[in-house]
Write a structure and sequence with these properties.
By secondary structure, this protein is an alpha/beta fold. Helices cover 37% and strands 18% of the residues. The chain has a 7-stranded parallel beta sheet, with helices on both faces. A 7-stranded parallel beta sheet has the order 10-11-9-12-13-8-14, sandwiched between helices. Strands 15-17 form a two-stranded antiparallel sheet. Helix 3 crosses helix 4.
Length: 440
């Protein structure tokens, strides 16, 4: 359906035309008419379905129609997101869609200057996109008043619960006005999510565009059975030789189960001359932004990520997703492989399955109702694996821990920044520094 037939205003249609968007997606067709009427909405939709435009386009129209100005230290629309990357992406979309509507947009999340957040909020903003932790910091310090919120959006609610934000969300609700329009989006809808939705929504309409946890149909899915210790050699060979019908691996997203595992993969690839970046919760905000920017721009074609990047990161042109570690939560597999085959393109997903990960594989196949195609180890794997192991043993590159500055406004456990670099001679001085604490 054309956007012009959904009842959107001319400024919004102009912004869509500038982005060359003409046809709406199923979630947009269902959600936009409901939201333009001011009703609450419960949406079941996976990332990549056009969900951001589904809630942002009608919300911009409603903000324009009410003809109010944001009060100092307040916002008119609040969008809550589980990760910094998703918050940045939503804010970027809001600025693009509101280009001709003259609405103000700000972001608030950990890892950035809290003083800059205060300055942005002091003038008041129309649309505020935030992660729960930093938002509560500002509210409790009385730099932000949520009593003026007209529209509330909770995006990726199931990941919010996975990341432990349930208590923060319950606190935030108490600061909001009872009279508001509330939108609640989640890729899955277990009982805990429905209970949370009841706290946020009033007589909501419900829309669902895909079966819960369905896989992307255009993704070719494979599995290779390999010992855990041999996974680095398999990854190196695959990146060098290629995989799939075309063989070439243009842009590769690799998932590790842990933060330290992601750093270790970067180190191992560096030892064989393959450049890669990592993104995870222990990285500082500038590091995460640089890694994503380099990946999007094609400067570095390999990105190692934990599940923080499994949702909401819209990077076009990802040709392959490699599950170096299988996720222990089956639904995460669906979100991981959803990073490829976007915007009508095809994609390839490969899972490395060690013996102790076979139960995870069974859970994934049971959830997706699809058996992954087995692929044998490449010819000459044992000899090549031995050669790579020997080369790494003689490499002078090692992981160096570099303490970072402390951020007194951040919450969480101390983190360390890792980089692959030649080892210093024994006894040589190392530069010191203050610790930085990982923020939400």
């Amino acid at each position: 359906m054309s956007f012009e037939n959904l009842g959107l205003s001319q400024p919004v249609l102009q912004a869509l035309a500038l982005k060359e968007y003409s046809t709406s997606t199923p979630i947009q067709e269902q959600a936009i008419p409901i939201l333009l009427k001011g009703k609450d909405l419960l949406g079941i939709a996976q990332t990549g379905t056009g969900k951001t435009a589904a809630f942002m386009l009608p919300s911009i129209d409603r903000l324009i129609a009410s003809a109010k100005r944001p009060q100092r230290g307040a916002c008119r629309m609040l969008v809550l997101a589980p990760t910094r990357e998703l918050a940045s992406q939503i804010a970027e979309s809001a600025r693009a869609y509101g280009r001709f509507s003259h609405i103000s947009v700000a972001t608030v999340f950990g890892g950035t200057s809290i003083n800059k957040n205060r300055q942005d909020l002091s003038r008041g903003v129309d649309v505020l996109v935030a992660t729960p932790g930093r938002l509560l910091d500002l509210v409790e310090q009385r730099w932000l008043d949520l009593r003026q919120v007209e529209i509330l959006v909770l995006d990726e609610a199931d990941q919010m619960l996975d990341l432990g934000f349930i208590h923060d969300l319950k606190k935030i609700v108490r600061f909001l006005p009872e009279k508001r329009q509330s939108l609640f989006f989640s890729a899955t809808m277990p009982k805990a999510i429905r209970d949370l939705a009841d706290k946020f929504l009033t007589n909501p309409e419900q829309v669902a565009v895909t079966p819960v946890a369905s896989t992307v149909e255009r993704v070719e899915q494979y599995v290779t059975f390999v010992n855990q210790a041999e996974k680095p050699a398999l990854l190196t060979m695959m990146l060098r030789v290629g995989f799939g019908a075309k063989g070439s691996m243009d842009r590769v997203l690799i998932f590790s189960r842990t933060k330290h595992g992601a750093d270790r993969i970067v180190k191992q690839l560096a030892q064989t001359g393959i450049p890669a970046n990592a993104i995870h919760g222990n990285k500082s905000q500038p590091q995460r932004e640089r890694a994503l920017a380099d990946f999007k721009d094609g400067k570095v074609k390999i990105l190692i990520a934990t599940d923080i990047a499994a949702r909401g990161i819209d990077v076009s042109g990802v040709s392959h997703v490699i599950n170096f570690d299988l996720p222990n939560v089956s639904e995460q597999y669906v979100h991981r492989i959803g990073r490829t085959a976007r915007a009508g393109a095809a994609g390839v997903a490969v899972a490395y399955c060690a013996e102790d990960e076979r139960p995870y594989l069974k859970g994934i196949e049971r959830l997706t109702k699809q058996v992954l195609t087995p692929v044998p180890l490449p010819e000459g794997f044992n000899a090549e694996a031995a050669r790579i192991k020997a080369a790494r043993a003689s490499s002078p590159i090692q992981i160096v821990e570099r303490p970072e500055r402390e951020d007194r406004h951040s919450r969480g456990r101390p983190s360390k920044r890792f980089s692959a670099r030649p080892a210093r001679p024994q006894g040589e001085n190392r530069s010191g520094g203050r610790r930085r604490y990982a923020s939400r």
